């Protein structure tokens, strides 16, 4: 942990807002519609404050409480002694067994304290630890009734799988000699003002028919991501998951970095290398549920149904076939909060994208529930107040201890206050994902002809976000790449992706349309849709095929569990044009900073012309979505008078376009109001083209 960020144990508290003692209702000043739910807001806030007070009184503060990994699991003294602690209150006896004692289930008994925590100290001999590094271990327990069960230690930091033997994971003690441990060389980069996220999965980040590695990602993907102009990597499927095809969403060992891709040190090198390149790294954290595995998961760990989870049906997620956490339990909070601290401290992650937040916020987990936006849906008996409060505490902890930390919520419900700080009664995330945006594009491409696109609805969907809450916009994420769905490029080009993406083949109307709209959809999403942008790896250049992990249904094939990143390197393929446009888009944002600028002013949504015009970050944006019409001397309003030039044109030839606008053209404004703006200028906007104009000089 960076000592400059460390605070005293009792310094984490709910900060007063505006001199007034906070009670959770400050958010009503941001959104008066919440006034009817004042009592519910107070209740959430009071519960979060009670937990923080409890930690202060009994645990030495939240800062100390959230360092559970320094006490539980395996800890190592400087003299080589090893201590193992595990919370398993239902067990009547517990023993440590493994390679170190020839798998003797009785030779190393543990002792239990009043809180159900078992402990064993293994002294070193002549400085040599009693358990060798990288050897297998288990905890063996006797439960009421006399049954003997064996489990993997809950806080274990390394588990490995040998599918030739069994799909069940083995726990491994990871304790390399200090001289061999990876040492971070680079500090975390500053928190980016504009968040441009490259969502990636290490295992699929290779064109080869195999599971990619951390080292390969470090060598090949980080330079690619840097070149493209992204400044944040969001890593998926890092927390160890039993089933590769679950995309990382069936976690069984929460403190173990997936061994499929390499060693813990390999992951540290990946993150350190990203930091050296000025790139922030987020972990896709899964605290919404856990694998129901018993032999190598948390489920039924000490023989009880309710250790980390709710008992009975409440503790089961029917849609995901997994277990749901009891966020109202003291030890569960220790486990989850410590898990966040572990990934920040041990691996130097810079923050988290919280998966499945909707499931955490509601007792129905979002199953079979459509959210209309009515505020009554966000309060009342369907809300899991314990889940809401856990997220409040987690965000408060992270942002106090790591001021540059970034947290993102994946929530489909649109709960108000998700991205408002706790002192005002919010949940405390930095950003929320704009999940309605990709759904809108798929619906358009599936159900509407191009001349039926409703620009007003497109603009509304892209700008419809809660006041004061930041949003990450995206045209498509990993969800749209998965089998059963189609990427945008696949919807646009379909079979011709296989026949006409070579520059030596005919530039058909289908491919011309696909490439033009692929660029325009990305640019309008980037510029109008939020305060951050996300892309899933490969989608930046219109990846030709979907994503499907090896499983029984496809004969365990890796054919679709890879990314054909090599396609952009072939100068005879049109994918390079889309890739180059994506890079230009990111670098233009880096220069002008529209993502951290106020929301755009939209001056024109012409439904018959299919023209959309707006201003943001001092730039003038002009989109012509008309499928067949180009417009000469098209008059567009602009507030700032002066001379403008084109800084980005989706029709430039280096992006696979026709170069129909002369790059040297300058656009002079006329002092006359137009579309509610003080001035206007006139432009040529070819069919299916987007132009971005910047002020070159004032008149």
TrEMBL record:
Tell me the ranges covered by the Glycosyl hydrolase family 13 catalytic domain, including all copies: 208-583
Asked whether the keyword Coiled coil is assigned, the reply is: no
Identify the domain of life.
Eukaryota
Q: Which GO terms describe its biological process?
A: glycogen biosynthetic process
Entries under InterPro entries matching the protein: A-amylase/branching_C, Branching_enzy, GH, GH13_cat_dom, Glyco_hydro_13_N, Glyco_hydro_b, Ig-like_fold, Ig_E-set
Catalytic residues (positions)? 355, 410
Known EC number(s)? 2.4.1.18
Pathway note = Glycan biosynthesis; glycogen biosynthesis
Q: Name one GO molecular function term.
A: 1,4-alpha-glucan branching enzyme activity
Keywords of the record: Glycogen biosynthesis, Glycosyltransferase, Transferase
Classification via PANTHER family: 1,4-ALPHA-GLUCAN-BRANCHING ENZYME (PTHR43651:SF3)
Q: Which family does it belong to?
A: Belongs to the glycosyl hydrolase 13 family. GlgB subfamily.
Q: What does this protein do?
A: Glycogen-branching enzyme participates in the glycogen biosynthetic process along with glycogenin and glycogen synthase. Generates alpha-1,6-glucosidic branches from alpha-1,4-linked glucose chains, to increase solubility of the glycogen polymer.
- This one is known as 1,4-alpha-glucan-branching enzyme
Lineage of producing organism: Eukaryota, Fungi, Dikarya, Ascomycota, Pezizomycotina
């Amino acid at each position: 942990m960076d000592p400059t960020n460390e605070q005293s144990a009792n310094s984490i508290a709910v900060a007063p807002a505006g001199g007034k003692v906070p009670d959770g209702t400050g958010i009503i000043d941001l959104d008066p519609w919440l006034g009817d739910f004042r009592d519910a807001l107070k209740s959430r806030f009071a519960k979060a404050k009670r937990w923080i007070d409890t930690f202060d009184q009994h645990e030495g503060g939240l800062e100390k409480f959230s360092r559970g990994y320094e006490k539980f699991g395996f800890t190592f003294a400087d003299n080589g002694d090893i201590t193992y602690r595990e919370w398993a209150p239902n067990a009547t006896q517990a023993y440590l067994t493994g390679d170190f004692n020839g798998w003797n289930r009785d030779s190393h008994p543990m002792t239990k304290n009043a809180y159900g925590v078992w402990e064993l100290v293994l002294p070193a001999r002549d400085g040599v630890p009693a358990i060798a590094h990288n050897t297998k271990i288990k905890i063996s327990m006797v439960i009421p009734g006399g049954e003997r069960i064996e489990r993997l230690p809950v806080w274990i930091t390394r588990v490995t799988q040998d599918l030739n033997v069994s799909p069940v994971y083995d726990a491994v003690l990871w304790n390399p000699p200090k001289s061999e441990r990876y040492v971070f060389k680079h500090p975390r980069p500053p928190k980016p003002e504009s968040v441009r996220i490259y969502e990636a999965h290490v295992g699929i980040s290779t064109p080869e028919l195999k599971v990619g590695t951390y080292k390969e990602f470090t060598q090949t993907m980080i330079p690619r991501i840097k070149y493209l102009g992204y400044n944040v990597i969001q890593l998926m499927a890092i927390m160890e998951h039993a089933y590769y095809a679950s995309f990382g969403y069936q976690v069984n060992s929460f403190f173990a970095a997936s061994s499929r891709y390499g060693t813990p040190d390999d992951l540290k090198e990946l993150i350190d290398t990203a930091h050296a390149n000025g790139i922030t790294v987020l972990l896709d954290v899964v605290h919404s549920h856990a694998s129901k595995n018993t032999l190598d998961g948390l489920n039924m760990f000490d023989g009880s149904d309710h250790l980390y989870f709710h008992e009975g049906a409440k503790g089961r997620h029917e849609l995901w076939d997994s277990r749901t956490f009891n966020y109202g339990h003291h030890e569960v909070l220790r486990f989850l909060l410590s898990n966040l601290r572990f990934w920040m401290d041990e691996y130097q992650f810079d923050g988290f994208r919280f998966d499945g937040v909707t499931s955490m916020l509601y007792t129905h987990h979002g199953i079979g529930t459509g959210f209309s936006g009515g505020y009554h849906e966000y309060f009342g008996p369907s809300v899991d107040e314990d889940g809401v409060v856990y997220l409040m505490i987690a965000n408060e902890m992270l942002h106090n201890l790591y001021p540059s930390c970034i947290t993102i919520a994946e929530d489909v419900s649109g709960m108000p206050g998700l991205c408002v700080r706790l002192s005002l009664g919010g949940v405390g995330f930095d950003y929320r994902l704009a999940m309605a945006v990709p759904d809108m594009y798929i619906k358009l491409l599936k159900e509407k002809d191009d001349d039926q696109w409703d620009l007003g609805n497109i603009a509304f969907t892209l700008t419809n976000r809660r006041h004061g809450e930041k949003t990450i916009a995206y045209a498509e994420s990993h969800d749209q790449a998965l089998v059963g769905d189609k990427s945008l490029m696949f919807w646009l080009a379909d079979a011709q992706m296989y026949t006409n993406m070579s520059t030596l083949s005919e530039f058909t109307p289908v491919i011309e349309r696909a490439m033009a709209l692929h660029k325009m959809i990305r640019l309008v999403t980037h510029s109008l849709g939020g305060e951050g942008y996300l892309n899933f790896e490969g989608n930046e250049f219109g990846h030709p095929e979907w994503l499907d992990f090896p499983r029984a249904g496809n004969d365990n094939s890796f054919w679709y569990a890879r990314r054909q990143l090599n396609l952009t390197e072939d100068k005879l393929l049109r994918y390079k044009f889309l890739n180059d446009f994506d890079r230009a888009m990111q670098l233009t944002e880096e220069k002008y900073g529209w993502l951290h600028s106020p929301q755009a002013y939209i001056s024109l949504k012409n439904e018959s012309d299919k023209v959309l015009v707006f201003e943001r970050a001092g730039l003038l944006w002009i989109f012509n979505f008309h499928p067949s019409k180009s417009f000469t001397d098209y008059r567009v309003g602009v507030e700032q008078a002066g001379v403008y030039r084109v800084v980005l044109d989706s029709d430039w030839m280096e992006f696979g376009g026709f170069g129909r606008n002369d790059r040297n053209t300058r656009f002079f404004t006329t002092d006359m109001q137009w579309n509610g703006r003080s001035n206007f200028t006139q432009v040529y906007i070819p069919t299916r083209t987007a132009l971005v104009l910047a002020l070159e000089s004032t008149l």
